[in-house]
Design goal:
With 168 residues, the protein is an alpha/beta fold. The protein contains 6 helices and 5 strands, in the order H-E-H-E-H-H-H-E-E-E-H. InterPro entries: CinA-like_C (IPR036653), CinA_C (IPR008136).
Amino acid sequence: MFDNIFNEKIMQELQQQLRENKKTITCAESCTGGLIASMITELSGSSDIFNGSIVSYSNEIKNKKLNVKKENLEKFGAVSIQVVEDMLEGSINMFDADYSLATSGIAGPTGATKNKPVGTVVIGVKAKSGDKIVDVYHFDGNRKEVQIQAAKTSFKIFLEFFQKTLDK
């Protein structure tokens, strides 16, 4: 189901960039359910750039393990910029990584609201230095297609973000 050419090319570039700059990455995933971590570790030798990740599917785990603020969960909901910002910070701290990717969204077919339809995914990238980018995306398709699009988009965003933070 994965686009293997895209996946391998992106993963090779991501790992090469991180290795050349002696940086590590982690991720905190909700709607992607570990897909991002799986894609990173698909290539042999990823342990030098990837210490681990967390799938924080429930709000309780987001709060207890990633220190996502209860008030952010209650006020904005799990699928929000505020929660993904907390997930980024929590995962960088948990895994002592230089960079983190985080996703939270509604892959469907259930879980949608009027303001957050199926396919709504918040994706964030953060550097240990504090630089970050977090935005809301909308993907079409069934559950698996939304998850795959969210993961692929995360990597594209990360590579652009990584280059910008290195140029500083």
